[in-house]
Amino acid sequence: MLTALGSAFVATQRAKAAHEKALRSKPFPKEWEKYLEDNVKLYGHLPKELQDELKGYVNLFVATKHFEGAGGLEVTDEMRVTVAALASLLLLNRKTRNYPKLRTVILYPSAYIADPETDTIRLGESWNDGEVVLSWNHVTSSSHDVRSGTNLVLHEFAHRLDQEDGAGDGVPNLETEAQYYTWAEVMSTEFKRLKSSVEKGYKTLIRPYGAINAAEFFACITENFFERPHQLKKKHPEIYRELQTFYHLDPASWSSHQHNYLDSPFKTPKK
After folding, report:
1. Using CA of residue 106, residue 108, residue 114, residue 117, what is the dihedral sign?
2. What are the tens digits of pLDDT across the range 138-187?
3. Which of 152, 178, 214, 234 has the most crowded Cβ, counting Cβ within 10 A?
4. Which residues fall within 8 angstroms of residue 2, CB to CB, at 6 or more apart?
């Protein structure tokens, strides 16, 4: 009985993998490529092989995830493709599934009230129950400025990766036991350093929001990794190295990132 169940499970997984491979191999619509060029500025910074891989992930994401408009917003293909591309940047070069626990992306036209009782206004959220909520206005505005170090979709989908083990604690699924050890050591030290700098009023490369907790720290450093790779590598080389190992990417080597994004110096505490 157990053998039969095991065989059935393996067969199901193989069929699913084959289906996903077929979706990723589909021709990419020309109008979709225009959406990438117009709305996903990081797309133009990717090497050609990563651009091609990203298109495959976009095909898969759009075909397998449900998009739902809220607050009167009517979801379009442009919205689906834009969100899918930004979310899929975090999957490139990695042996991982396409956000297996994610079912639905809910899009509001702008910032929304997340809790009517407290009038809490938010730009985005990622829930363990399989939903991501995003403000479309902030999806596009944060994606257009790749120098800002803030990107709503990268931030919320970093949370998705963090939540895949059910914890949402700033430690995503890593590949080896040694990686967990190094990750804990580096991230704990860097998180405390950020928190101290924020409390002392220092200007930081990693935005102060990352000092709230370990989960927000991981989401914020992910934004910097993709949008300010040279600065992150220079000022926080150990963070960069850990993220480079986790994401299997080296954004600092991408040719379009060769200019320095940040002109203003950062005041850092004396040791």
Report:
1. negative
2. 999 999 888 889 999 999 999 999 999 888 999 999 999 999 999 999 99
3. 152
4. none
- Distance separating alpha carbons of residues 78 and 224, to the nearest angstrom: 25
**Fold category of 22-257 in CATH:** Collagenase (Catalytic Domain) (3.40.390)
At 267 the pLDDT is: 41
Contact 252, 180 (CB under 8 A): no
CA-closest candidate to residue 106, choices 59, 70, 82, 81:
70
Integer Cα distance of 88 and 91 in angstroms: 5
SS (H, E, C) the chain: CHHHHHHHHHHHHHHHHHHHHHHHCCCCCHHHHHHHHHHCHHHHHCCHHHHHHHHHHHHHHHHHCEEEECCCCCCCHHHHHHHHHHHHHHHCCCCCCCCCCCCEEEEECCCEEEECCCCEEECEEEECCCEEEEEHHHHHHHHHCCCCCCCHHHHHHHHHHHHCCCCCCCCCCCCCHHHHHHHHHHHHHHHHHHHHHHHCCCCCCCCHHHHCCHHHHHHHHHHHHHHCHHHHHHHCHHHHHHHHHHHCCCHHHCHHHCCCCCCCCCCCCCC
